[in-house]
Design a protein that fits this description.
It comes from Mucilaginibacter gossypiicola. The protein is of the alpha+beta class and about 130 residues long. The chain contains 2 helices and 7 strands. Strands 1-7-6-5-4-3-2 form a 7-stranded antiparallel beta sheet, with helices on one face. A hairpin with a 3-residue loop joins strand 4 and strand 5. The protein is globular, with a radius of gyration of 14 Å. About 20% of the residues are buried.
Length: about 130
């Protein structure tokens, strides 16, 4: 399993950050420009990555104010799990976004850079949206 992480701190209450992330309708605001054909509900999102693949993801687990776990809703090109881990520290919320992907050696060479960029982009977009 290959792991890509990005962490930030936001000067917002834990509940506000959790409620935003717990609704997949809000995640479109976190996606990079190459994400197209976005459709979502509170629990599931479908989209395509320009010139690459179509994905369907669903929120598999919610632990109030702690964790949101996202997995594929349909068979993806490779096994994938996304996790938002949250904790409150004094006056700000600490956030760790993790992408776990089961990549072959060839896929690792092709996808490692884009997956790390995605992790960084999502956390930075979250900071921008909630600030």
């Amino acid at each position: 399993m290959n792991t890509f992480t990005s962490s930030i701190s936001i000067n917002k209450p834990l509940t506000e950050v959790y409620n935003f992330l717990a609704d997949f309708n809000n995640h479109k605001q976190l996606m990079p420009d190459n994400i197209q054909e976005w459709t979502s509900t509170r629990d599931e999102a479908r989209f395509s990555i320009q010139n690459m693949a179509k994905l369907a993801l669903k929120i598999d687990e919610r632990i109030a104010n702690e964790l949101i776990r996202i997995i594929p809703a349909e068979k993806p090109p490779f096994d994938l799990e996304l996790k938002w881990s949250l904790s409150f520290n004094n006056d700000h919320t600490d956030i760790l976004f993790t992408i776990n992907a089961e990549l072959s050696m060839m896929m690792k060479m092709l996808a490692s850079g884009p997956l790390q960029k995605l992790a960084d982009h999502e956390t930075q977009s979250l900071l921008n949206v909630l600030s």
